Amino acid sequence: MNDTVVTLVGNAATGVDYRETPTGGVARFRFAVTPRRWDRRNSAWTDGSTSFYTVCAWRSLGANLTASVNVGDPLVVHGRLRVRDETLDGQRRTFVDIDAVSIGHDLTWGTSAFKRVARANTALTERPVDMSAAASAANAATAGNGSGSDAGPGAVGKPVHTQPWLSEQDESAAPAGAAGVPTGPL
Predict the structure, then answer these.
(1) Nearest CA-CA partner of 78 in 51, 52, 99
(2) pLDDT tens digit string along 3-57?
(3) How far is CA 56 from the centre of its chain?
(4) C-beta separation of 112 from 172 below 8 A
């Protein structure tokens, strides 16, 4: 693959617009990058002309971006560069987009607190056609959490880690609204 991968440092110029699509959620926002140069003649920093990019972030990156970024936040965006030409109202225009791979706050300008997002069992969040299907999906998802004393698949005791990078303490501290999420095998 011959993609052009770029890393840009700038500010969120607009709010994040999040939409669900058939292939997963996508978040979009405009990103402003203004170069600063040292002007030796005036002995001062001067701003160059601002470049604007449309940044697209798919699936979990897009959902996390929506919850984390506000207008004006200093960001570092890393992703694939796409340049496209379109004709609008008889005029040819060029648009520059970034398909983001990673986005984070620029800690040169402030602090940030990271909070890991817990992923729930998808059987509990799917939207079934009727309510009876929703009840059966919830029952099937929690069926493996019995209170038997054997060491079999439904045993209670040490939690089964669905996310191996989490410690037991992280997994047991359920985020708000996730109290009914089972920790047993899927």
Answers:
(1) 99
(2) 899 999 999 999 999 999 898 899 999 999 999 999 999 999 999 999 999 999 9
(3) 11
(4) no
Tell me how far apart the alpha carbons of residues 138 and 124 are, in angstroms, rounded to a whole number: 6
| 8 A C-beta contact, residue 32 and residue 54 | no
For residue range 69-107, list pLDDT tens digits in order: 999 999 999 999 999 999 989 999 999 999 999 999 999
Q: What single string gives the DSSP state of each residue in 41-66?
A: TTTEEEE---EEEEEEEEHHHHHHHH
Q: 3-state class of 173 per DSSP?
A: coil
* Overall pTM > 0.90: no
Residue 152 is given by DSSP the state: S
> One-letter amino acid identity for 163?
Q
What are the tokens at 117? 């997002």
